[in-house]
Amino acid sequence: MNISQRYRLSLPLLTDMYQLTMAQGYWKKGMQEQEAVFHLYFRSNPFKGGYTVCAGLEDALDLLRNFRFTEEDLAYLRSLKGSQNQQLFEEGFLEHLRDLEFSCDVDAIPEGTVVFPNEPLLRIKGPILQCQLLETPLLTILNFQTLIATKAARVVDAAQGDKVLEFGMRRAQGPDGAISAARAAYIGGVGATSNMMAGQLFNIPVKGTHAHSWVMSFEEEQKAFSAYADVFPHDSVFLVDTYKTLDGIRKAIEVAKEMRAKGSELRGIRLDSGDLAYLSIEGRRMLDEAGFSDVSILASNDLDEHLIQSLKLQGARIDTWGIGTKLVTAYDQPALGGVYKLAAFRQADGEWDYKLKLSEQLIKISTPGILQVRRFYQGNSIVGDMIYSEPLEVNASATMVHPNDPTQRKSFSRECTHEDLLVPVFRVGKQVYDTPSLTAIQQRNRKQLSLLHETYRRFLNPHIYKVGLEERLHDQKMDLIIQLRKKEQSQEA
Fold first, then answer.
1. Residue ranges of the alpha helices (H) in 358-410?
2. CA Rg, the chain, in Å?
3. If DSSP codes are grouped into helix, strand and coil, which group holds residue 489?
4. What rounded mean pLDDT belongs to the chain?
5. What is the model's pTM?
6. Are 109 and 54 within 8 A, CB to CB?
7. Which conformational region is residue 278 in: left (phi greater than 0), alpha (psi within -120 to 50 degrees), or beta?
8. Would you give the distance in Å from CA 188 to the centre of its chain?
């Protein structure tokens, strides 16, 4: 089930008001059908990391596929008043929205792909009014899911092959935050979720144990374990830290012996507080000495990639990691910061007028053109990404320029292979892309990360992956910056 089915058929009002006021402006000035190109991208990797995992495309495609204004939407817009108590949106404009049919071309980087700053995740080309209306909903979908998928990939990396479960629903930012986070976390590599609705919607495996309240509802801890084992003789994982953790482990072992005598086995114990390294080491020793070496130890309690890495270094004997708050809320970076910028505008004579957002901050100066991302491979590694503009011929030497330092350049040898990352997903408003299964997307992410050298994947001061502008695109951008600066100066004079 996709995003429109989770809420309602159409989501055109999942947007900011200024998108609609600009849309009416385009309509009023007769510009609504003029062709434009926008790019959606982000400016820096989240979590001070060396890479990002693209996610959210399937929901974005569903939004586009069902993009239409209902009578209910139009009635709401009709009810809005301006400062003079006049109808804010004119009837003619509302009629235009009623008849609007999505007709843009959209290219996208497939979900699960490892991506980097300034690379367009989406390229939208079509009537400027339509392109403008898509800015906010596309950003809210891709920003969040890309952020969570990246966090999940980092956690899975830290776990070094151990099982990782997403346990964060109760701490998520509302119902859709929980559902979207579970989907994105699965793309990033987690093996299961505790979120039952996400399991139903996306066919993600679901896992869970029991809460402290189960233990507290019985007079004795051991009786609580025994009762749970009676209900789930082949699927019991006991939460052992309601009172004293080591005592809880001893009681879990006693119940495990009772289960074995009846022909079933305890699956695991869960640690949710205290010194997880010490308790897991002692717990493993106790379980092994009692003959339960197959019983796994699951840990939760505000874990993230940094704490997992630390516990690994301390010799913790944890087999499965339940990650909650710090995954689904992207605790240490709550927003990706993706942007959506106009890069080209078709003039009446049919020629493209390339656009650039100027800024005093170099990082905020956008890149003009109709952009594509070419990824270069050498052996079993990705070695660099070159952003180029499709109307410009790519230089024969495949040379790119550092986006913030034109003195730094890199050329790729003829031995390198390459692929262009943006693929067609919509043409003239019709979907032309077959959406892969969520499992296939997760597998793509694993493959992508395996091609990325470990120095880019480390958590502290990762190596910076090389992304640059193709030479001709760089020159075009510099020329446009100079033109705009001169225009500014002439206006100030």
1. none
2. 27
3. helix
4. 95
5. 0.95
6. yes
7. alpha
8. 8
